[in-house]
Structures are given as structure tokens and as C-alpha cells.
């Protein structure tokens, strides 16, 4: 090597040594950046380097956007650095702690209303639609897709994971949730959370807990006994947290047995952090904090968007409380450590490239979710699937000419391409804030494309006579009926609004070959059901909803969804025929609103368990859903012992490929409530059969014993039913189970 080269090498070596030396010293200075350490250890190390004000900064949240049209301080500009999501917490640059940029929600990167005007994202079908797929892979893929979009837009927290159980089929936010069963909801929402977090974005799980109606949500007091709460609402959270390990839990607005959820020592400290060993952080819902000391000591780790609360509770008052020892300094450390721990666990401190959004691929994820989530409720005489050689098709109502409806509120997504239509809401407190938004995926255009030789007419449905005339002319009629649901208010009734029941009845009277496609946020009653041979529940079907509906109608895709929520025949069948608090008037954030109780005397007997225990016949049962083939069940083998294991065969006996969701229910020896203990979704070609296994989580066989405390499985014979819905039992058996008590 010549001298020049030798010198060059020496110089390069010195530079490298300097860089390496810097790396070593940086590592020494920031030992928490060592990714080989556990998230807990890294958070412990980092907390030691933080000053009091830095810890306080982490636990005090800001609104990250501007609420135009609202009074100060809500209309204040967002803090510098916030990119326009619902929440923002400043980072600590000195220590390499990133800011938290939080965006709603679970159905896509929400950008409706005040948030980031002009922004667009891919809307998934509603939570109920996704839950109707009963397919954990669909839930995971949806979570991964919206997590990727969130990351591309610069967000590192998604306010997703909505898993409040449907105790009332009029709850205005059921469309964001996953139905009435704790196992189904918990498994699916857990997978959605996992999908989000695998993209390096923290997901919340919300709203913890018993936020089961919107009427008076800021002030209501849910009354329910502990065992029932553990077996229902809390079990859904527990299962989802175990599967998804969300970085944060959002506590709810309401009170439970007297205390507000965001200062609920029992709920947050005893159950969540104690019994379940939850290691992430608890953030408040926006406007859900009511105190400093009680909240901090009661388990709240972060006040979100403090301007939404009556006071800046986790600002100066928290500092004073820590200084005086009312909130122990160790508790503040715990609050900040939990946030840091989730940042490390999910990878928020790792630099990641901001990838472009693949809109076509993401829309395909939404379409698949819609296709698996559409439920064929009725199909008399196999009216569906429709033949593509039809000549005259009448499409009526539901703005099917332009797009598909979506649910409103903080979860509102404005789709790529912009809304097809935005209409003012009719009545209710939400009208001041939210609109009826239609995503640009026209069912009419998709139907026309599927039946190229047909004359496909469209009539709005506003003019009954015109709709009837169009129906008379057609070989087949497809009526689109809609029910808009939104955060802040519940459905006034189970009826379809705006005279649509009369429209459907008149159209079906004019043409007996009438198919009803429901775009609803909740179950609805169907006074016209005897007159309509076919009904599809399409829910809010998301970015490519129109295409998905057409694919199901024409049989390009066989329906495979099943109901995750019971469709009651009337309000009179419900535990609370009238939504509690309906007679009162509420303000947006509670203020001095009248507190009131919502008793849940049905306890664990919610949803299908309520209907069964009261021998009520619903309109459509939990788990119900038809397809274009038939399935036969046989060969049940059931084993007992510590839990129930079953094996059985499902055979496609028809002429089309389709998927079946085979469900397994068990009843304890005491004759208690029959519960879903597992399911399998399987796609079978004509004539094909498959042996399927289900092994139950023993907690689903147990009653919660508050004295133990724990899950107590009674010894004895458990009866088992396997079938196509909660009421369509095809195979039955029974097994002996041993007594045991499992940790809470
Ligand atoms: C909702 C939450 C949402 C938050 C932030 C609240 O009103 O209840 O679900 O994440 O607002 O927008």
C-alpha cells in the first residue's frame, strides 16, 4: 500500500472510531435506547433521567386540532408541533422521547368535521360489519391497513379498539363496536389492535367501561354487579387486551356504580392493572376527567386534550399535588413510565420511513371486509343470487346512485376521492357537529356493471308513487334502506326512519321479487318482512361498499357473514324498552347535566342470553346468516376434563362454494346461561367437508366469583350445542367438567 493510501486508511479509521466512540457514548448517555432490553427496563432507565416537569408534560394532553364553531378554549389553535389529530402530547427532545400524535379511530384515519379539512383516508366497513365476518384475519388485516395509513400520515397513536358490548341495539355507537358477545368482540378487536400495532402505531382499547349508550354519556351511572360486569363488558376488554396488548386504554365518560370511569380505583387499579397485569397507560376520553388527586391515584395516567375538561387537572394542579405528596411522586413516575413502556413496546422511538399509501390495495382490504361482513338474513325461494342476464332491474332509495352511508362522530373517515354526498343530519344534538356522509362507492353503478344487458333504473324513494311504478316495471327490485347512526345520540327507535318502512311495503306490494339491502348502524325492525323474500344486512360497508354489495347480490361472492348482535322483534323485548335518560336534555360535555342511573339488572344475560332466558323470539338471532349453499353437520365428538373440546364435521351439500361459521355454545350444569364458547369459519367447495376443532377458554364455562376472587368452573355435565346460529342447533352433546378456580 502506498503512503497516500495508508494515510487515507488511517484517517478513515480515525473517523470511524470517532463515530463508533460517539455511538458508544450516546448509548451510555441513553442506555434506554438499547433495543435488546425489555420495554419495562428501558422505561425504568429513561424515567431516572427525567425531571419533574418532563414527566408532567407527558401526562398532560392537548387537543391536536381546532374545534371550529365551538366556544373557547375548544376553538383554540392546536399547540405547535401537533399535526391535526384529536390528541397531542409534546415529546422531550433532550431525551429522544417522541411527541404523541393521536388520531381517531378504529374504522380508518378519521378526518371528518374539524380535523384536517381536505384530508382523505380509506374507510373500513363499520365495526359491526367487520364483526359479522367472525374472521380474525379480516379484523387483523383491517387494523394493519389503517395502522399503515396512520403511520404514513405521521400519527403514532390510533384511538381505535372500540369494544363496548351492545347492551342496547339503539346505542348510537354500536356501529363502531363489535356486537354483543364478549368472546367474539374480544377476539376480533384484539386482532384489530394487533394489526395496528404491528405497524409501529400504538392502539388504544376503548371506552373502559360500560359506556353502553350515548344518551347522557357524560353523566350516566351504569349500575351493574361485579360478577356480571366481569362476565360481559369487562371480559370483552380482557380477551382483547390479552390478544392485542394495546399500548393504551381509554377510560370512558360515564360512571360505574357511582364513580367516574376515569377515576375508578376498582376498575383501573384493581381490575385492569392488578388482576389483569396491564402494563400500558390509561388515557382519558376527551372531557372525561373530573379531578386531579382522585383521578391520578385512581389509575388515570394521562389527561387527554385538557381543554375538553372543566379544569386543567393534570397541569398545575397535578404538579401541586405531587409536590404536596397527595399524589405520591412514585405514582407520577408510574404514570410516565407506563407511557414510555408502550412507546418502547410498540416501537415509537424507532425511526421509520413514511411510506406512501397504496390506495388500491387498502380499498381491497376494505372490500374484502365488507364482502365477509354482509349478512344474508333471508332468501326465500333462493331469489338471490341474481342472474346477470336479467333485463329490467329497479334500484330504489338509499342514495344508492352515488354511494354508501357511513356512521358519524369522532370515527368519521372522509374517503379518498372525497365524499359522494354530505347531508345535514335530521335532528338530535349531533346535528350541530356531524353530517351524514356517503362514501363514493355507488351500488347502482356496480349493479349496472354486473348486469350489462339490463336496463337498471334508479328512483330515490322520496316519491312513493314513482318508486311503486318503477317496481312494477322491473323483473327484480332492490330497495336500499338506511339508518344513520352517530356518536352523541342513540337511535330514537328500532324502526327505519323517514317512512322507509312504508316505502318498502309499497314496493314489495307492487313487486313480490323485492330484495331489501339495509345500510344501518344497528339492528332494525322489519314490519314488511313477510312481503320481502330477500334481505341483506350490509351495515356501513366502507370504501368499496357498493362493489361488495353487488358482488354478493350477483353471487360473485357467496355471503358468509353472521349476526354479531340480535335483531329484536320490538323494543318491548328489550331489558330497557326505553333508553334511560331519553326524557332528559344534555349538553355536549356534561356541564351541569342531571346525573341519572342506567340499571343493568339483566347482568350477564345480555343479547342472545337475554332472549333465551326470557324465551323471547327475536326477529333474527345472534349468529344467524344464510348463504347460497347449504351445510350439513355431523360426527360430534366432545371431550371434557378441564375444559370443553369438540370436533365435528361440516359438509357443503349445495352447488356453490361458500364459507360457514360453525358456532359452539355450552350451558353449565346449573342450567345457567348458554354461551358462545368458540367458532370456526371454513370455506368449502361443493361436496367438500372438513373436520373442525374448537377448544373453549375455560373462563367461558365459569361464573365469576367475587369472593374467590376468580373464575369458578362448576363440576358437572355441561351441555353443548353446535350449529349455524345461536338458535339453529345441528348437533348436541354433553361432557363432564372438573371443578376449578381460575385467576380473575
Ligand atoms: C370519543 C372517543 C374519541 C375522542 C377523541 C371522544 O368524544 O368518545 O372515542 O377517541 O373523542 O376524538
Give the helix tally: 18
| CATH-level-2 architecture of the largest domain | Alpha-Beta Barrel
Largest sheet, spatial ordering of strands: 1-2-3-4-6-9
Alpha carbon gap, first and last residue: 72 Å
What's the rounded overall pLDDT mean?
A: 95
Radius of gyration: 27 Å
Please, how many domains? 4
Main sheet: strands, sense, barrel: 6 strands, mixed
Q: CATH class of the largest domain, anyone?
A: Alpha Beta
Identify every distinct bound molecule in the structure, by name, code or SMILES: beta-D-glucopyranose
The CATH homologous superfamily of the largest domain is named Glycoside hydrolase, family 3, N-terminal domain
| Global geometry | globular
Q: Strand share of the residues? A: 15-25%
Oligomeric form of this entry? single chain
Provide the CATH topology of the largest domain: TIM Barrel
Instruction: Tell me the helix content.
Output: 25-40%
**Total beta strands:** 29
Helix/strand-derived class? alpha/beta
User: Which residues form runs of ≥5 with pLDDT under 50?
Assistant: 1-24
What do you see in this structure?
The chain is an alpha/beta fold. The chain is built from 18 helices and 29 strands. The chain has a six-stranded mixed sheet with strand order 1-2-3-4-6-9. It has a six-stranded mixed sheet with strand order 10-18-17-16-11-15, with helices on both faces. Strand 27 and strand 28 (about 730-735) form a beta hairpin. The longest helix is centred in the first third of the chain and has 27 residues, at about 5-30. It binds beta-D-glucopyranose (BGC). Beta-D-glucopyranose (BGC) binds near residues 86, 104, 159 and 286.
Amino acid at each position: 500500500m502506498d503512503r497516500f493510501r495508508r494515510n487515507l486508511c488511517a484517517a478513515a479509521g480515525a473517523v470511524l472510531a470517532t463515530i463508533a466512540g460517539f455511538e458508544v457514548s450516546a448509548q451510555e448517555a441513553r442506555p434506554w435506547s438499547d433495543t435488546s432490553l425489555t420495554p419495562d427496563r428501558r422505561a425504568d432507565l429513561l424515567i431516572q433521567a427525567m425531571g419533574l416537569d418532563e414527566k408532567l408534560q407527558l401526562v398532560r394532553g392537548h387537543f391536536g386540532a381546532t374545534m371550529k364553531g365551538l366556544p373557547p378554549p375548544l376553538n383554540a389553535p392546536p399547540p405547535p408541533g401537533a399535526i391535526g389529530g384529536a390528541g397531542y402530547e409534546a415529546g422531550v427532545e433532550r431525551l429522544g422521547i417522541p411527541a404523541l400524535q393521536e388520531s381517531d379511530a378504529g374504522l380508518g384515519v378519521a378526518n371528518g368535521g374539524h380535523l384536517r379539512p381536505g384530508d382523505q383516508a380509506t374507510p373500513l366497513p363499520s365495526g359491526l360489519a367487520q364483526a359479522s365476518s367472525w374472521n380474525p384475519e379480516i379484523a387483523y388485516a383491517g387494523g394493519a391497513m389503517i395502522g399503515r395509513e396512520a403511520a404514513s400520515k405521521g400519527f403514532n397513536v390510533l384511538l381505535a379498539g372500540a369494544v363496548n358490548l351492545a347492551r342496547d341495539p339503539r346505542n348510537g355507537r354500536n356501529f363502531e363496536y363489535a356486537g354483543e358477545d364478549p368472546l367474539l368482540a374480544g377476539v376480533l378487536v384484539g386482532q384489530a389492535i394487533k394489526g395496528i400495532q404491528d405497524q409501529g402505531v400504538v392502539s388504544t382499547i376503548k371506552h373502559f367501561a360500560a359506556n353502553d349508550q350515548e344518551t347522557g354519556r357524560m353523566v350516566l351511572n351504569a349500575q351493574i354487579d361485579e360478577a356480571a360486569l366481569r362476565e360481559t363488558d369487562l371480559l370483552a376488554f380482557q380477551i382483547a387486551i390479552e390478544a392485542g396488548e394495546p399500548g393504551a386504554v381509554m377510560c370512558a365518560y360515564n360512571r360505574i356504580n357511582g364513580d367516574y370511569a376515569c377515576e375508578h380505583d376498582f376498575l383501573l387499579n384493581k381490575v385492569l392493572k392488578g388482576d389483569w397485569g396491564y402494563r400500558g397507560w390509561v388515557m382519558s376520553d376527551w372531557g372525561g376527567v373530573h379531578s386531579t388527586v382522585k383521578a391520578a391515584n385512581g389509575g388515570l395516567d394521562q389527561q387527554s386534550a385538557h381543554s375538553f375538561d372543566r379544569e386543567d387537572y393534570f397541569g398545575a394542579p397535578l404538579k401541586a399535588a405531587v409536590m404536596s405528596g397527595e399524589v405520591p411522586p412514585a405514582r407520577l413516575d408510574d404514570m410516565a413510565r407506563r407511557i414510555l413502556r408502550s412507546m418502547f413496546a410498540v416501537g415509537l422511538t424507532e425511526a421509520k420511513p413514511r411510506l406512501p399509501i397504496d390506495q388500491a390495495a387498502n380499498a381491497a382490504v376494505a372490500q374484502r371486509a365488507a364482502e365477509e361482513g354482509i349478512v344474508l338474513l333471508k332468501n326465500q325461494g333462493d331469489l338471490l343470487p341474481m342472474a346477470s342476464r336479467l333485463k329490467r332491474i329497479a334500484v330504489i332509495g338509499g342514495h344508492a346512485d352515488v354511494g354508501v352511508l357511513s356512521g358519524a362522530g369522532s370515527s368519521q373517515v372522509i374517503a379518498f376521492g372525497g365524499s359522494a354526498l354530505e347531508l345535514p343530519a335530521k335532528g338530535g344534538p349531533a346535528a350541530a357537529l356531524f353530517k351524514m356522509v356517503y362514501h363514493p362507492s355507488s351500488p347502482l353503478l356496480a349493479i349496472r356493471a354486473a348486469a350489462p344487458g339490463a336496463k337498471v333504473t334508479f328512483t330515490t324513494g322520496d316519491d312513493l308513487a314513482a318508486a311503486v311504478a318503477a317496481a312494477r316495471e322491473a323483473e327484480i327490485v332492490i330497495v336500499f334502506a338506511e339508518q344513520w347512526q352517530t356518536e352523541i345520540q342513540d337511535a330514537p327507535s328500532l324502526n327505519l326512519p323517514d317512512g322507509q318502512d312504508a316505502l318498502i311495503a309499497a314496493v314489495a306490494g307492487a313487486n313480490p321479487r323485492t330484495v331489501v339491502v339495509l345500510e344501518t348502524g344497528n339492528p332494525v325492525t322489519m314490519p314488511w318482512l313477510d312481503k320481502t323474500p330477500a334481505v341483506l344486512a350490509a351495515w356501513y360497508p366502507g370504501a368499496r361498499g357498493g362493489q361488495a354489495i353487488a358482488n354478493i347480490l350477483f353471487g360473485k361472492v357467496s355471503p358468509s357473514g353472521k349476526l354479531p348482535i340480535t335483531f329484536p322483534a320490538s323494543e318491548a323485548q328489550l331489558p330497557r324498552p326505553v333508553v334511560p335518560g331519553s326524557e332528559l336534555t344534555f349538553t355536549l360535555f356534561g356541564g351541569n347535566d342531571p346525573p341519572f342511573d342506567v340499571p343493568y339488572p339483566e347482568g350477564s344475560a345480555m343479547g342472545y342470553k337475554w332472549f333465551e332466558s326470557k324465551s323471547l323470539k327475536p326477529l333474527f338471532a345472534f349468529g344467524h346468516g344464510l348463504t347460497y349453499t347449504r351445510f350439513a353437520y355431523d360426527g360430534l365428538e366432545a371431550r371434557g376434563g378441564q375444559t370443553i373440546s369438540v370436533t365435528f364435521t361440516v359438509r357443503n351439500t349445495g352447488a356453490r362454494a361458500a364459507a360457514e361459521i360453525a358456532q359452539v355454545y355450552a350451558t353449565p350444569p346449573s342450567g345457567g346461561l348458554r354461551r358462545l364458547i368458540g367458532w370456526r369459519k371454513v370455506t368449502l367447495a361443493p361436496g367438500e367437508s372438513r373436520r373442525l376443532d374448537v377448544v373453549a377458554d375455560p373462563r367461558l364455562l365459569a361464573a365469576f366469583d367475587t369472593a374467590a376472587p376468580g373464575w369458578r368452573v362448576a363440576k358437572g355435565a355441561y351441555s353443548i350445542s353446535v350449529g349455524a346460529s345461536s338458535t339453529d342447533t345441528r348437533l348436541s352433546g354433553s361432557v363432564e367438567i372438573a371443578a376449578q378456580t381460575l385467576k380473575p
